[in-house]
Automatic annotation (TrEMBL):
Keywords: Hydrolase, Signal
Domain of life of the native organism: Bacteria
Protein name: Glycoside hydrolase family 65 protein
Pfam families listed in its UniProt record: Glyco_hydro_65m, Glyco_hydro_65N
């Protein structure tokens, strides 16, 4: 009996360790090439660094500055409150004088920890949080364990980028009765003067009452340059006397606040006067809610970690209470796309979020709804009706694509992609009030646009001419397969939406939808565009007609298109195309080819040391949220067999790769269903 209990206990511990491994990515090679990952909460994003106590930069969601030279907006890299300088016995801690360096990304709790030993003097742990419930704040928790008596000096810093204008720095101790609140603050104007940015910071000591001035270390303020504002303290530690403290910062702008200066102070004070346990418990609770939508892979730890990292980033880059969208690089980088919003959101990131987290999905569609009026104006400007959405969108809703790029004037499928996403949101949520107030008004304008956009041919069919399709290697073509297919789908969905609300749809919608041309080659292969002759393609285009559009639905035709276009995919192109191929092979019951393409859709793009995704195999910009959306679609809509239908989310013909023991999809749809796929 005792042996039986012991065996059960060992199995229980083993399972706990296995589950823990599925949530943590750890690196110990400090000399490896380093591509950071984002610690983000949907509003601010901090990019990790290998250097002790350093954050590479901070990205501010939906805060755009306009460069008059480039003539386009750019998402703002804000003031960096994530860097500290730490000295022990008057020697600064750097990469060159530490050992046993380790970094760990705990995806379950969205906590990024760096640990190391400084000479023979101290062990140090530093954990960075972008607090989920306090969306404009970050929290850096530090623990110093002396191995002998040491003197510690710590500098908290606010670093203002050198392209910011008129930086002003100060330190003040605010008082309310017996409570004292030391606040370091920097205020500056964004590089092109669109916004005022205010950042505040302070230290929090965990083992003393930090609100009482006589019980905390003495603070010293120094403005070290026009762009660096510091606050420091000194502390002697005896062996065994652990020092635990936090540095917290809040960053606000005139994009979101009339008085960002005062609001950033209040947020820091809120953190200062709440305990670490309270703040971090709330943060973890919010992430626990997000992880109610989860993907569990048994038998393949590598795939589990890769999939979780992708899903972590989509959750980290979005918020259900924001009505904001997600850029291709999320909140990790300003480059290469200036933080603008593309079709990447609607076609790649939105479907996984729609089935796993309807709150974030609602923010993504509401972002477009809130910018409907500029899209209607753009249609008028270009001689069309309805709404014509920009290829690249920022906070204005106007076209934000650089003028030299042909995608701005000609990549029109974005308008259909948005209409499709809107109907899919309704299909999953069945929120008729939303459909009436936000969904249908936009879908109607999208349908009207396509009626005005088509050209009628002599045989009664319709063409869509002079576009850039999903394959951007072929600009200014006629009858692009995906553009035409997306327009057909958006028109048909608008008809369904009208019927759902008992409204009379425009009869022209049905006529155009039923007669837009989908071209074929002589052997029956779907032709990418009117002049396509077998050229290499940037990414999937024709195959999108099979998934997600379901226009090419005959199995033989799907296979024919797959075999023709897979060899045409460019090596240097983005990997999402292979995700589409993987979904289709899985739905055809070919687990081998599906798994091969699943791995090819992201593995070549992974960067050391955490596996962050870059856009292509020959670049290292990360984290590429679009690619994350693609690989997650393979798991959910391919192997998992999920389909978004007019009846909601349904499972059909799930299939398991031989490399996996089981696949569990948790928190699916509004009813939070669980689907388990086993051999």
């Amino acid at each position: 009996m005792r042996k039986h209990i012991l065996l059960l206990f060992i199995l229980f511990v083993f399972n706990l360790n296995a589950q823990d491994k599925g949530w943590n990515i750890t690196t110990t090679d400090v000399n490896a090439d380093y591509t950071g990952i984002a610690i983000a909460n949907g509003r601010i994003g901090m990019l990790s660094s290998k250097a002790p106590f350093q954050i590479k930069h901070i990205v501010l969601n939906n805060v755009y500055d306009v460069d008059p030279n480039l003539e386009v907006s750019q998402i703002l890299h804000g003031m960096n409150f994530g860097n500290l300088d730490v000295y022990i016995d008057n020697e600064k801690i750097t990469q060159n004088n530490i050992s046993n360096w380790q970094q760990n990304m705990n995806m379950k709790e969205a906590a990024f920890t760096t640990s190391f030993q400084f000479k023979n003097k101290a062990k140090i742990h530093c954990t960075v949080y972008a607090l989920r419930h306090l969306q404009y704040t970050g929290y850096i928790d530090i623990k110093i364990e002396p191995l002998k008596a040491i003197d510690v000096e710590v500098f908290g810093k606010i670093i203002t980028p050198k392209n910011f204008k008129t930086p002003k720095h100060k330190f003040q101790i605010l008082k309310d009765n017996e409570t004292t609140m030391p606040i370091l603050q920097s205020v500056a104007v964004s590089p092109f003067e669109k916004h005022k940015v205010a950042t505040s910071g302070t230290f929090i000591w965990h083992n003393i009452n930090s609100s009482r001035e006589n019980q905390r270390p003495e603070l010293h303020h120094k403005i070290t340059s026009d762009y660096e504002n510091t606050l420091s303290f000194k502390k002697h530690l005896d062996k065994g006397e652990t020092l635990e403290f936090a540095w917290t910062g809040a960053e606000c702008t005139t994009k979101d606040f009339d008085d960002p200066k005062s609001e950033s102070e209040r947020m820091v004070i809120f953190n200062l006067l709440n305990s670490r346990d309270v703040l971090l418990q709330r943060h973890k609770q919010e992430w626990a809610k997000l992880w109610e939508g989860d993907i569990i892979i048994e038998g393949d730890l590598t795939s589990q970690l890769d999939v979780r990292l992708a899903l972590y980033h989509l959750y980290a880059f979005g918020r259900g209470d924001s009505n904001l969208s997600i850029a291709p690089m999320g909140l990790s980088l300003q480059v290469p796309y200036n933080g603008h919003i593309f079709w990447d959101t609607e076609l790649w990131m939105f479907p996984p979020l729609l089935v796993l987290n309807q709150d974030i999905a609602r923010s993504l569609v509401n972002y477009r709804s809130n910018l409907l009026e500029p899209a209607k104006q753009k249609a008028i400007n270009y001689g069309y009706k309805g709404a014509m959405f920009p290829w690249e969108s920022d906070d204005t809703g106007e076209e934000a694509t650089p003028p030299f790029a042909l995608t701005g004037p000609f990549e029109h499928h974005i308008t259909a992609d948005i209409g499709i996403a809107f109907w899919n949101y309704y299909r999953v949520t069945k929120n008729k009030q939303w459909l009436k107030e936000k969904g249908y008004p936009l879908m109607k304008e999208v349908a009207d646009y396509w009626v005005s956009r088509v050209t009628k041919n002599t045989d009664g069919s319709y063409s869509i001419n002079n576009v850039v399709g999903a394959n951007e290697f072929a600009p200014n073509v006629n009858d692009n397969a995906f553009t035409n297919g997306a327009a057909i789908t958006a028109l048909k969905y608008a008809i369904k939406a009208a019927k759902e609300l008992n409204l009379n749809e425009d009869k022209a919608w049905e006529d155009v939808a039923n007669n837009i041309r989908i071209l074929k080659m002589k052997d029956g292969t779907t032709k990418e565009h009117a002049n396509y002759n077998g050229d290499i393609i940037k990414q999937a285009d024709v195959n999108l007609l099979s998934y997600p559009l379901n226009i090419v639905s005959n199995q033989e035709e799907i296979v024919q298109d797959l075999k023709y276009y897979e060899p045409k995919l460019a090596i240097e192109g983005p990997a999402m195309g292979k995700s589409i191929f993987a979904v289709l092979y899985a739905r055809l019951g070919d687990a081998g080819n599906a798994f091969r393409l699943f791995k090819q859709s992201y593995q070549p793009n992974q960067q050391t040391p955490f596996g962050a995704l870059s856009e292509t195999a020959v670049s290292n910009n990360s984290y590429f949220a679009t690619g994350a959306g693609g690989m997650l679609q393979t798991v959910l809509f391919g192997f998992g067999g999920l389909h978004i239908t007019d009846n909601g989310i349904e499972q059909k013909n799930a299939i398991l790769p031989k490399q996996w023991k089981s696949l569990t999809l948790k928190g699916i749809g509004p009813d939070k269903k669980t689907f388990v796929i086993k051999p």
